[in-house]
Write a structure and sequence with these properties.
Layout lengths: L1 H11 L10 H49 L8 H4 L10 E6 L11 E6 L9 E2 L2 E2 L2 E5 L3 E2 L12
Antiparallel strand pairs: 1-2, 2-5, 3-4, 5-6
């Protein structure tokens, strides 16, 4: 038996001295993983911000549809409370607001905005070099302010 075991060690090259990894090998793997992570993390964060922005855009489009449904049976547009739409997006990354004209008899227009919550990474959301932290829509169409903000809407 002893000869057979010794023969196995000799042919495979495995001995007790060759178990595990060296410190240099572990350092190389750690450096490679940190390099890959440093390249992938910014792209991942940008994709997450874009998905959150899509949620805000979807909420603004829902408000636009709800406003038109409301207006079909009323003489003026409605507030968020009247529409039954919450003041934040489902994930809580944007606050939603609806602004109606000041004069009570002239509520034939509205502006709905989604603003990134302060202190979140969504404040840093950009499409190219244009900030997408505040998105606005009115009774007619999205409002691009500045004009380059059309990229935030995927236009």
């Amino acid at each position: 038996r002893r000869v057979l075991f010794r023969s196995f060690q000799h042919t495979t090259g495995f001995t007790n001295k060759n178990k595990g990894f060296t410190l240099v090998e572990m350092l190389i793997v750690t450096i490679m993983l940190s390099l890959l992570l440093s390249l992938a993390l910014p792209s991942y964060k940008a994709v997450v911000r874009k998905a959150r922005r899509a949620e805000a855009l979807e909420t603004l489009y829902r408000i636009q549809i709800a406003q038109e449904k409301w207006r079909s049976t009323h003489t003026a547009y409605a507030s968020l409370a009247d529409l039954g739409i919450p003041a934040t997006t489902p994930s809580g990354n944007y606050t939603i607001s609806v602004t109606l004209p000041v004069s009570p008899g002239d509520q034939t227009a509205y502006t709905a905005s989604a603003t990134a919550v302060a202190g979140t990474s969504q404040e840093l959301d950009k499409a190219g070099s244009t900030s997408c932290a505040t998105l606005t829509i009115n009774q007619d169409e999205p409002v691009y302010s500045p004009a380059a903000q059309a990229a935030c809407w995927g236009k």
